[in-house]
Design goal:
By secondary structure, this protein is α+β, with helices and mostly antiparallel strands. It is built from twelve helices and 16 strands.
């Protein structure tokens, strides 16, 4: 009980100390400081605050100014920064243009602390002790002034308390996030269950039927107690895709209505005799399945097309969006899907779209390059021209524009099955199916998309509906051969919303 109480008290101290830097006022004074947090950088998921990062310090209540600070150690002449960032209003920092620790004595392996006034003033810091001079007074005086003694104690204690409190708080948050939804399955052999749908006796989850199969395994409809869930089972050779997906689902702000809801990720012993472990990804289950499967057996009204297209674009916009935060555990980086297609868009019971399958997705952490990422990945039919050519600019925006090319193709699939067009609705066809068939090679797609610059054709019957005409313009700007000319996901979402409202008003 005492340990929990101490953890809560430490957490509150950190929130009070750090949170005041983020206080908002009508017209705040902002000081820019260098930001660093060794504790977060040494954690397994620490990405923000690991060097060359700045922080905006907003004035506290009553327009009290904010300053910058640095906490460091000097072990055998080796400087080691512990913390950098914003510091609350303090008279000792006012007017200090350089970050100096002026204490005349530092214990071995002790902490140095300095604060200063001005943008990025804590980018440089040093120890500059005040030289001691012999006393000339004949009368006895106290060795230290009371105020100086209090300041010394406070400034020596705050860094230690802050570091300890932050460590405990981060550890507490980390432990809460790691609480599993299901218990792990022992790796014992389960082959005695036979080839039927396995019911794992030591788990409250039952695989019911296979709903889809792909290159990364099978998707099962399953029961967990009384709830229906989806279980995507990865074979051993695709463990990396399983790791990528669960890591992306667990990023901050990924709990979104247009992103498939994540439940858990676990390792299991295969029910096939002699097989190695298989890897489960447990998510929400949606009866309608993928958009591709739904369009094969259903046609759409204009209102249904608008709802699906809006929610799909909103999900892609959220995926691409970078959500900054002053707290590293709330920062969401931009994410490129890299295999966007109608098979990876699922439909809920009300035809709301949600995006799934992040096995090839790429996360763009600030200040980091894409690394050794292979550019030519995804489904050939939906590959952008620059992907087919192998001529990708390995930047964040370049990968996001590849998703937008595929988004234009999915919008074409929706329009082709919409009743807003005149005449009979044709059977469902994949993009470029008329040009390259159902199983195109990479060379087929290069010839069609890169050399001939072909795109899926617009039917004459679409010209009878103003909404479809406007949607065709949006498609063309999504799949433009020049990647830099393509629309962003937010722009697509705004356009579709406006087009649908226009049609609603006209009726």
């Amino acid at each position: 009980m005492e340990q929990k109480l101490w953890m809560w008290i430490c957490g509150i101290l950190v929130l009070v100390t750090i949170g005041n830097c983020a206080s908002r006022h009508v017209q705040p004074n902002i000081t820019k400081c260098m930001y660093y947090n060794q504790t977060l950088c040494e954690s397994s998921r620490g990405t923000y605050g690991c060097g060359n990062v700045t922080q905006d310090c907003i004035s506290a209540d009553n327009d009290k100014p904010s300053y910058c600070y640095t906490v460091w150690t000097n072990t055998t002449n080796q400087l080691s920064i512990k913390l950098q960032g914003c510091f609350l209003n303090n008279i000792e920092c006012h007017g200090q243009k350089q970050c100096k620790d002026k204490k005349d004595e530092i214990k071995p392996n002790g902490f140095f602390f300095c604060c200063c006034d001005g943008d990025y003033c804590n980018s440089e810091f040093f120890w500059d002790p005040i030289p001691t001079t012999p006393r000339t007074e004949t009368s006895a005086k106290p060795m230290y002034d009371n105020n100086e003694l209090i300041h010394t104690i406070v400034f020596s204690t705050i860094p230690l308390v802050a570091v300890a409190s932050m460590f405990l708080f981060v550890y507490w948050v980390y432990k809460r996030r790691k609480i599993p939804h299901f218990s792990h399955v022992p790796s014992s052999d389960s082959s005695h269950l036979g080839n039927c749908s396995p019911i794992l006796s030591n788990r409250p989850i039952q695989l019911v039927e296979v709903k889809a199969r792909g290159r990364y395994g099978a998707v099962w409809k399953a029961l967990h107690k009384k709830d229906t869930v989806a279980v995507k089972i990865f074979p051993p050779q695709d463990k990396n895709s399983w790791l990528v997906e669960q890591d992306i689902y667990q990023l901050p702000h990924m709990q979104h209505q247009n992103i498939l809801s994540f439940i858990g990720a676990e390792k299991h012993a295969s029910v096939i005799e002699g097989a190695k472990n298989e890897y489960w990804l447990i998510t929400a289950y949606h009866d309608y399945g993928s958009l591709c499967d739904y369009l094969k057996s259903n046609i759409l009204t204009w209102d249904q097309l608008c709802h699906i297209a809006q929610s799909m674009a909103r999900g892609l916009m959220h995926l691409h969006e970078e959500i900054p935060s002053e707290r590293s555990d709330q920062y969401k980086p931009a994410i490129a899907h890299r295999d966007f297609k109608s098979n990876n868009v699922l439909l809920k019971h009300d035809l709301t779209a949600c995006i799934a399958d992040f096995g090839l997705a790429l996360v763009f952490q600030p200040g980091k390059s894409c690394g050794d990422t292979h550019g030519q990945v995804g489904t050939r039919r939906y590959m952008a021209p620059e992907v087919l050519e192998g001529a990708i600019n390995f930047s964040r925006d370049a990968f996001l524009r590849i998703d937008m090319y595929a988004c234009g193709l999915v919008l074409w699939e929706l329009a082709a099955r919409c009743t807003a067009q005149q005449g009979a609705i044709p059977d469902y066809r994949l993009p470029f199916e008329e040009e390259v068939g159902q199983h195109p090679s990479l060379e087929d797609m290069q010839e069609c998309v890169v050399h001939k610059k072909l795109r899926p054709a617009f039917k004459d019957s679409w010209k009878s509906h103003p909404g479809l005409i406007a949607l065709c313009d949006t498609m063309e700007e999504c799949w433009d051969h020049d990647a830099e000319a393509r629309l962003s996901a937010s722009c697509v979402m705004e356009r579709i919303t406006w087009q649908c409202r226009q049609q609603l008003y006209q009726h």
